[in-house]
Specification:
Elements: E1 10-21, E2 27-37, H1 47-56, E3 59-60, H2 62-77, E4 81-90, H3 91-95, E5 105-112, H4 117-128
Parallel strand pairs: 1-3
Antiparallel strand pairs: 1-2, 2-4, 4-5
Length: 132
């Protein structure tokens, strides 16, 4: 079997996600940004948002959602590195309790090459850029 090598980072950003908080049974919604550095195996770009949907469709907490997506990509593709950042608004914070309508919760997870500060910084810079 021929194993290709890649030097690039594959990023799919601004993936819409909708889930239900397992604590309050109220929605949370936002965007996921995912990157991996291939190590001989690549996946069709549409599969990355599908992974997000699979885990988001269950009763969930954002921290675990981030980790499940990270682990799934890492275990399946065995890449040189994986990064996941999720930014979400939680109805439980907006409707009840503190009632903070403009709050956003951000979670992140990094494995492999993304533990390196330069690689992580490149990823974070690229997901923060807007298209011109």
């Amino acid at each position: 079997m021929f194993k290709e090598t890649y030097d690039e980072m594959v990023i799919v950003k601004d993936i819409e996600l909708y889930s239900l908080c397992e604590h309050h049974i109220l929605p949370f919604f936002g965007k996921a940004h995912i990157a991996y550095i291939p190590n001989g195996h690549i996946v069709g770009l549409s599969k990355i948002p599908r992974i997000v949907d699979v885990f988001a469709r269950r009763l969930q907490v954002q921290e675990r959602l981030t980790e499940q997506i990270l682990d799934c990509i890492n275990d399946t593709l065995k890449p040189l590195g994986v990064a996941v950042v999720i930014e979400a608004s939680h109805m439980c914070m907006m409707m009840r309790g503190v009632q903070k309508q403009n709050s956003v919760t951000t979670t992140s997870g990094f494995k492999g090459a993304f533990k390196n500060i330069e690689t992580r910084t490149e990823f974070l810079k690229l997901i923060s850029q807007k298209l011109s």
